[in-house]
Write a structure and sequence with these properties.
It is found in: Membrane. Keywords: CF(0), Coiled coil, Hydrogen ion transport, Ion transport, Membrane, Transmembrane, Transmembrane helix, Transport. Belongs to the ATPase B chain family. The protein has 173 residues and is mainly α. The chain has a domain of 78 residues. It has three helices and no strands.
């Protein structure tokens, strides 16, 4: 029995005490590492939240910059469109005024000159036309001349107007 006690004391001092001390140190080390990991998880979560906030702010800033650029570009395009539209309208007003002047000049054209011109045209086209037919056709020729002059002026206005708008839109696009 004394050998058993001696063996128990020897094993306790040489084997179990160092082993218990090692296991306690290892357990404390594991607990410390787990605590550090929990702290780091908190820090990581905090850093993720900060990164998300930075990204959100950057996106908002980029969105604001894009919106500002869109507003500026839209304003520039509207200003250029208004300027070109004003130019076209001014030119159209000038063209209409010129055509109105031509119309008035045409309408002021003396009837005697129209009759003379009509009779010359008819005599050249129909040299053997009797005088009675010529006198009957002069009012019709006068009316036709005035109507064709007005249609010619309207066609000219339409052509000028369409040409300016085509040039304007092709320069924008």
């Amino acid at each position: 029995m004394s050998e058993f006690l001696l063996l128990t004391v020897a094993l306790d001092k040489l084997y179990f005490t160092p082993l218990g001390k090692f296991m306690d140190e290892r357990d404390a080390s594991i607990r410390a590492q787990l605590g550090d990991a929990k702290d780091m998880a908190g820090e990581v979560k905090q850093l993720e939240e900060q990164a998300a906030a930075v990204l959100k702010a950057a996106r908002a800033e980029v969105s604001a910059a894009l919106n500002q650029m869109r507003r500026e570009t839209t304003a520039e395009l509207e200003a250029s469109f208004a300027e070109e539209k004003k130019k076209v309208e001014e030119e159209l007003v000038k063209a209409l005024a010129a055509l109105e002047n031509q119309k008035e000049e045409t309408l002021k054209f003396p009837d005697s000159q129209i009759d003379l011109l009509s009779s010359e045209i008819v005599s050249k086209v129909l040299p053997s036309a009797p005088l009675i037919n010529l006198q009957l056709s002069l009012p019709l020729i006068h009316k036709h001349f005035c109507e064709n002059q007005w249609e010619l002026q309207q066609n000219l206005i339409d052509a000028v107007f369409c040409n300016y708008y085509f040039d304007f839109w092709s320069s924008i696009c």
